[in-house]
Amino acid sequence: MKLSIREKAAYGLGAVGKDMVYMLSASYVLYYYQDILGVNAFAMGIILLAARVFDAFNDPIMGVLVAKTRTKWGKFRPWMLIGTILNAVVLYFLFAAPPALNGAGLVAYAAAVYIIWGVTYTMMDIPYWSMIPAFTEGGKEREGLSTLARSCAGVGSAIVTIITMLCVQGLGGGDERTGFARFGLIIAVIFVITIVITCVNIKEKSNVSVEAPSVGQMFRALIQNDQAMVVALTIVLINCAVYTTSNLVIYFFKYDFGGEGWYNSYTLFNTFGGAIQILSMMLFFPLLRKFLSTIRVFYTAFVMAIAGYVVLLGLTFTSMKTVFLLFVPAFFIFSANGILTVLTTVFLANTVDYGEWKNHRRDESVIFSMQTFVVKLASGVAAMIASLCLTLFHLSSDTSEGVASAVGSSSVLGLRMTMTVLPVIGLFVALMLFSKKYILTESKVEEIARQVKSHR
Length: 456
Fold this sequence. Notes:
With 456 residues, the chain is an all-alpha fold.
């Protein structure tokens, strides 16, 4: 039975809420603790990276728990609901650090709360994405839902990217610490509402029965699914590039673009970029798919992203008197990011059928636990890179508008190289890996889907 409009809308709405939460944490936790609370940038980098290493063990275990779950509500929805409620509570405390804490106490608080945030986010994120193969058929329906969900996730990310600093200033009356606490609470409430709507309206339809595996069997299944591993590594490299830039862009506008109006330029840039990313998922990607295969669209997006970074680097050596010049590289980078985000989810969903065809077991939760892990790993690595950049190039944590003029030219140059050259290197490596190792063309996916269906 085909998915109804209500089911598609409910699933997409859940993606909006959950990615609003994720983007708030991924893009602003370093800024909140380093610039606002004064925690050492290197210490924050260690915390963010360590949390992601912890997730290397936590995420596959969560995949096992989901696979073993048997309830009258299915195996996905109970975890989605529990994880969402817990994560929403932790999100608030992540951006509402007690004022009495400072020094080592504040560092310990940041470490504990951020690790708990990652655990609870995993509890809902793995079952959310794992549902795609469980209630869709392969091919166009799955690709269509993956595109919709990733587009909606992009909307959630873009909304947070655009409005965060404006809302923080408004809600806090100029006090960013208060503003972040209140904004975090609002986002947490929105998160719970959207996932509740998803859980009420979506139900998995797959009747595939598999024996619940052990943790050891799960790891072996991941290693044996070579296509899932290729996609996972590609996602890590792409997201490391994207998150490195997104973590540093606020510092770029403050210390490099500069001027008293840097804050307004930063907001305008994010508004444009967010809109382009949404359009790329909802308009550019479907348009390209009319003429190109998914793999060719994937390569096109890589070329766009690399071109955008090259143009951005070139523009940083000009006077940059107007933010509108930066819209040119932003168009290519944000468009590519939107398209790549959709396609990596489609490719990962295809590896579920591939794994069943090759290994004779269907491991949705485990395969998609890799997506959760690798995206969070990428954000941790990117945050570590950003914190090293801030530390090595002596970029101050002082948030006053006059600081930018005091930053030396070597510091600005280091910032430019970190947020442009490193991402390009990462994208090139991802492109080479994918082109040499990924074999699931559209015809191959259709052939595998037919064989899997006949075996059932």
